[in-house]
Amino acid sequence: QVQLVESGGGLVQPGGSLRLSCAASGSISGITTMGWYRQAPGKQRELVATITRGGSTNYADSVTGRFTISRDNAKNTVYLQMNSLKPEDAAVYYCNAVRTTILTNYNYWGQGTQVTVSS
Question: pLDDT, tens digit, for every residue of 89-117?
Answer without folding.
Answer: 999 999 999 998 898 999 999 999 999 99
